[in-house]
Amino acid sequence: MDDIEIINQVLQGDQQSFEELIKRYQHFVFTIALRYSRNREDAEEIAQDVFVKAYRSLADFRRDAKFSTWLCTIAMNTTRTFLRKVKPRMDPLDPGTVHAQHTGNSADPTEKRSTHLLVNHVIGLLSADDATIITLFYKAEQSIEEIGVIMGLTPNAVKVKLHRARLRLKEKLELYFADEIKEILN
């Protein structure tokens, strides 16, 4: 079933069908919340709030965009509201002391996970906007236009911001993890 069919079922009174939407998008929403909050517990709380808000507002979903785009907008707004209410926390990871470990075997699932963790960590070192645009484009596979809707930007502005975010990501990778990158590429 696609998202629209599930939404129609929920709106017709089958509240249990909403669980399928939660299963499909819980990782997506959690990732967005974590990018901004940088705290697992806060991200879990935010994700829960996002789905409650989405459920309550489901009748307002206009269907002129993908459900994931609409949900992402709710996630970003909920996260921003949450973060305004809490005091900023110190990032427990010092980027200068965090190093990924690699085995040297690119077919090794452990190395792939390590590489994935390395990239995620470096994305976490970016500003919230840069991390969000990278996450939306590469992990959530949102189009330039969808990212524009989510972030309130024109498609051209998204392209420029994405380009600049990629450059900053590359700089951080080269700055903090030059040895690991060389090992991955070999």
UniProtKB/TrEMBL annotation:
This is RNA polymerase sigma factor. NCBIfam families: sigma70-ECF. GO terms for molecular function: DNA binding; sigma factor activity. Keywords: DNA-binding, Sigma factor, Transcription, Transcription regulation. Belongs to the sigma-70 factor family. ECF subfamily. It holds the Pfam family Sigma70_r2. It comes from Chitinophaga rupis. The keyword Transcription applies. Residues 121-169 form the RNA polymerase sigma factor 70 region 4 type domain. One of its GO terms (biological process) is DNA-templated transcription initiation. Coiled coil: none annotated. CDD domains: Sigma70_r4 (cd06171). Residues 21-86 form the RNA polymerase sigma-70 region domain.
